[in-house]
Each structure stands twice: as structure tokens, then as C-alpha cells.
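We examine the record.
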Amino acid sequence: MNYKETVEYLFHSTPVFEQVGASAYKSGLENSWALDDHFGHPHTHFLSIHVAGTNGKGSCSHTLAAILQADGYKVGLYTSPHLVDFRERIRVNGEMIPEQYVVDFVAQERHFFEPLHPSFFELTTAMAFKYFAEQHVDIAVIEVGLGGRLDCTNIITPILSVITNISMDHTQFLGHTLPEIAHEKAGIIKPGVPVVVGEALPLTRPVFEAKAQKEGATIVFAEDIPAVLSSHDTPDGREYRTRYLGTLRGELCGDYQTRNANTIVTAAMLLINRGIIRHPESVGEGLATVSRRTGLTGRWQSLPGHPHAVCDTGHNVAGWQYLSRQIEAQPARTRRIVFGMVDDKDLTHVMALLPQDATYYWTQPSTHRAFPVEKVAACGQNCGLHGSIFHTVPEAYQAALADADPDDFLFVGGSSYVVADLLASLQATK
């Protein structure tokens, strides 16, 4: 099989959460331990940082990786989902895993894993750990796929755990209350391993404290003594005034990045104090160059051309509480929004947060999990939002561009998969 055929094989022969949802989710670590044993426990050959949370874990993972790269380490980075190319999930110093490695891994190992019937994510995680060990990375930043306690990445014993925040998402797997979800996220806290919690709530803080106490783990709540004191927009990102490191420039845009930055700088200070980050200036260098160093996309990402257009992967109520305010703050004659969601998200409550004065281009991403565009449009109408129906994201985007004047603002989002379809279409037309 060539690379394209191999990726198709992975997507069609293993259960893929991004495609089929709940049926792909496997609770328990039995397969992960079996794969780990088969490959000789590769995760023990490098240091790791484990990142969980409802929102912001992708931005935090990529930025921590960029900081460590700036400090001179060879850094593995494992994240999900990918937007355009499967290989985005597995990177070393920002470079994606080679196509040939993916091909050879499947060809050489399928005799073992096929009888095991792992999920797509279980198999991908094993591939990542094996690749990082073979590449002799110094440290790997590992993003949790879903939850924490039973996530297949949770076989690692990291040097630092990070939990960004907790909100209502994936409730069918993680629980229907914030303390239940916090319990699942807190499952990444390991004996004696310090943990940074970016944002806590009165209902979730005791859960984290109890788990940390049980494991003898030092716990730091980033909000208690904020490392980031203030921030503001700049033409090319955000500027942060910090408690310990002076003024830092962050490359990533979006109001929500201030909270992410507070979590990141707090984690970085802990790593500085432990001697892991050897040069404090690496923190600023990583924040300022995260996209270039790690290939991160889809976070308040500006799109080429005119009018001013942005895409963002925010996909739940917590994310849209920030996104709506930021969209409404954009100077524009007309705000035009290309919007779709997938079926495990709270469509009604997200809709209630969308700007009332925008023109909408309702759509659906290409995943089987997408809400039908007709359902999205009907929900929008119930919320007093008005727009037109388009059955693909590129169709909707091109219609919005055609309607737009130069002084309009255009936003594309509602789901990672909406952004993925958009970026794939833009890449195909280059």
C-alpha cells in the first residue's frame, strides 16, 4: 500500500471517533498496554508532559512544545485531531512523521494489531510513542485524546501534568456533571508528578485537590497567582505582561489565548524551577513562534485575501463564549459566518451564543458525524439567526466571499471538521 491507501486502511479498518463517534470509543487501557508491551514500552525512553482539558489543550500542547524546542530539546508532539493530513498528529521538532514510516508501520505490524482490534486512536498513539523512541526525542508533549483516566495516552508517567480547564463536553463518555468530568480529567494526575490546573471552578477544584493529595502530587492552580497579569491585541498576535518574565509576545490570536497563556507560563515556570527549561527566554521565543515551530493551525487563524477572514476550531459552549465576543468586536460593515457542527455537541446552546446581527452560511462538514445542514439552519432560525443553506464547507465559504464587501468580516467555524474541510479545500487550490 502507498501512503494514501495506508491512511484509508487505518480509517476504515479501525473504529475512528472523528468519523463514527461513540462506537469508536473504547474505555479501558487493555489494548494500550498490549500495544505498549509489544513495542517494548517506547514511552519509557523519553520524558513526557501530559496535557488534558476541555478547551485549550491543543494550543497549550503546541506552545509548550515550541518553548522546549526553543530551549534546545528534540521534542515530540502528539495531538488530535488532524485537520488536513493524518501526519499532523505526530511531529518531531515540528516535522510531521514521514509518510513512509506510516506505511511501514502498518505493513510490518498489522499481523499483531489486527487480531487485537484496537481503535484508530489506540493504534495511532502506539505509532507515535514508537516513533518518538526511535527518533530519540528528549521530551514529548502528549495531548489527551478524550477525558484522561481511561484515555490510551494515560499509560505514560510524565514529568508534568497539565489540565487546562473543565466544561460540559463529551458528556456521554465523561459524565453529566462538572465534578464527574473533572474526575475523568484528574485521572492523569500521577504519584509524585506535579500538576498545573489552568482554570478551576468551585465544583471542580475539590476534585483536583483530592486526587493530587491522594497521589502525593504538588498541585498549582494557575489562577491563584496569575503568571499573566494583562494582555492586549497586537497587529500580529497578543502581548502579555507577565509576573516573572516581563513582557512577552504571543503569536496566537484570539481572546481565549490569554487564559491559555497563563496556564502555559505557569507550567513553564514550574519547569524552569525544576531545571528542565534551562533558559527563561525560551518561554518568550516559544510563545512568539509556536505556529512556525510546530505547524499549529485553526486557532483564530487569518485566511489569505480580502475581506478579513478568520477560521477557528472552537466547538462548544465554553469556546463560543469567547468567540462570539471576539467576532462582535471585529470592525466590519457586515459580519458573515460560515457555521456547522457535529452531532455530539450542544447545538442549541452554542446557537444561543452566536451574534444576532450576522449573516449566516449554514453548512455541514464532510464527517458522518455532522449535523445535517437543514437541522443547523432550523436551529438557527429558532434562535432568530438568518442565513442560507450550503451542503459543503467550500461551497458556503465561496458564497460568503462572493457576497462580501472589502470592509466585511468573515468567520468560518463551529467545529474542527468545518475548519478541516476549509483548509483542505484552500490547500487543494494552491
